[in-house]
Amino acid sequence: MYYVSYWFTVDGNATQYAESFMSVLGVSSQIPNVGIMFINMAIVVAGSLMLRIVIPLIINCLLLVVIVALVIFVQPNDNDRNWFYIVTLVIIILMNLCNGLYQSSIYGIVTDFPDNYPNSLTIGNNICGMFTSLIISPENVMLNALLYFCISLGVLVICVISLGVLVKLPYYRHYMAKGESARMRDSAENPSLSQYWECLSYSWVQLFNNFFVYFVTLTIFPAMTIETPYYQRKGDPWGSVFPENLYFAINTFLNFNLFATIGALSANYIQMPSPRLLWIPVLLRIFFIPFFMFCNYQPIGKIRTAVTL
């Protein structure tokens, strides 16, 4: 909680920045991410698809260098809090623009590979989330933030290097050539509106299912779950099986990424219900939102005394 607890909380009192940060973070992350994905999908731009993967990774590396520099050289104070809040959100917007371009482009490449590869990307993302959740971090908030951001920077550098190796592999070249010839045969290099419409007419239900799953998930995680502390009466000792300093790391982030990984792995072996009925459990997920609201959900700056569940 480097931003909320360290930067935007003064003497134990949450400022207006702390109260709004998690919600604004979600909006600043998802709108640029999804928006650039749609643009990248709908507008065909000449040039190497690999460039649209490498360039966002390099930009994100530079942005992480800026974040690390801010962690080291700028300490919380009233004079810097406003511009630090704005700069942080600008960095988040830029990073998610790059992430959206990177993710949609990497999925574009992986679609030329065998059918199980797209799901493998999802599994890889969730395993990465598990890894960061399992890191036992120091109590010092600044050192904690520095550790996480430096690890992120190191992973991105490894990704850039691994892409240089990937494009030289015979396996990669074989499937890229195969996909290129298939697109040329079907005149799909520059798809027309009628081709887009034909694609949507076949797949709109599953596209809606994907959208709605992520809509419910991102409404709850992490904005709501990070503001749902362990319930204990005033004066009672800590009663959770998880240590207090690791409660949110385990109960929020590790829990989410672990079961997301299990779900993605299970989808390789279990496909139920059928695609025709899949919309039913997808729509039923909407009830998770009121469910979490009636837990010990305590938004910063708000007082909720009734805990129903």
From TrEMBL:
InterPro entries, from UniProt?
Eqnu_transpt (IPR002259)
Q: Which Pfam families has this protein been placed in? A: Nucleoside_tran (PF01733)
Membrane spanning residue stretches: 31-50, 57-76, 82-102, 145-167, 207-226, 246-270, 276-295
| Presence of keyword Transmembrane | yes
Q: What is its main location?
A: membrane
Q: One MF term from GO for this chain?
A: nucleoside transmembrane transporter activity
- What keywords tag this UniProt record? Membrane, Transmembrane, Transmembrane helix, Transport
Q: How does it sit in the membrane?
A: Multi-pass membrane protein
Subcellular location per the Swiss-Prot or TrEMBL entry: Membrane
Give the UniProt entry's GO cellular component terms: plasma membrane
Q: What is this protein called?
A: Nucleoside transporter
Tell me yes or no: is Membrane among this UniProt entry's keywords.
yes
Query: What does the sequence similarity comment in the record state about its family?
Result: Belongs to the SLC29A/ENT transporter (TC 2.A.57) family.
